[in-house]
Design goal:
Layout lengths: L2 E4 L1 H9 L3 H7 L1 E5 H7 L7 H9 L4 E3 L18 H13 L3 E3 L3 H9 L4 E2 L4 H8 L4 H14 L4 H9 L12
Parallel strand pairs: 1-2, 1-4, 2-3, 4-5
Helix pairs in contact: 1-3, 3-5, 7-8
């Protein structure tokens, strides 16, 4: 399974749209410890689901080990801890991709040529992989647009991207 280094906001959005469990079945999810702490805070949407999934070993939680000489987190500027650690875990492994719905993290990924998608693209990936119909994908994408905060530019790309645009992220 392809490793996917996931931030908290993406996991929460996908849980709200009832796409987190399909994501678990499709990819090897890896959370930074700080992102996991965020998604399991009491009262947060899906907190119990995330804790239960982790207790069943359905995804991995990893710590980012900092080194004094060359700490990647120093290069990540003003990102939140969860996004910094998620990116650092990806950089340590250098396989799979990053799933982030944080605008600053997405910009950092673009600037540094790191493979990433946001939650809005997950239904499209599922459609292109044959796990979902075009209609189901469209419904889920609209659900995510209503739940999340996506710019017109991000929405335009998501709704118009081709299988070639997402080929790196399509499993199988």
């Amino acid at each position: 399974m392809t490793p996917v280094f996931t931030d908290a906001s993406s996991a929460i959005l996908l849980e709200k749209a009832q796409l987190f469990n399909p994501l678990l079945k499709t990819f090897k999810l890896i959370f930074a410890k700080s992102a996991y702490k965020e998604i399991t805070k009491p009262g947060y949407p899906g907190a119990n689901t995330f804790a239960k999934c982790h207790s069943q070993d359905l995804f991995i939680v990893r710590s980012h080990f900092k080194t004094k000489k060359n700490d990647d987190t120093l290069k990540l500027g003003k990102l939140d801890a969860g996004e910094k650690e998620t990116i650092c875990l990806f950089l340590a492994k250098k396989e799979g991709f990053i799933l982030t719905d944080d605008g600053k993290a997405a910009q950092w990924c673009i600037k540094n040529h790191l493979p990433f998608i946001n939650a809005l693209l997950v239904p499209k990936v599922f459609w292109y992989a044959g796990f979902m119909t075009k209609k189901e994908s469209s419904i889920k994408m609209n659900d995510l647009c209503n739940i999340g905060r996506y710019s017109k530019k991000v929405k335009r790309f998501a709704f118009n991207c081709s299988p070639e645009d997402l080929s790196y992220f399509i499993p199988g």
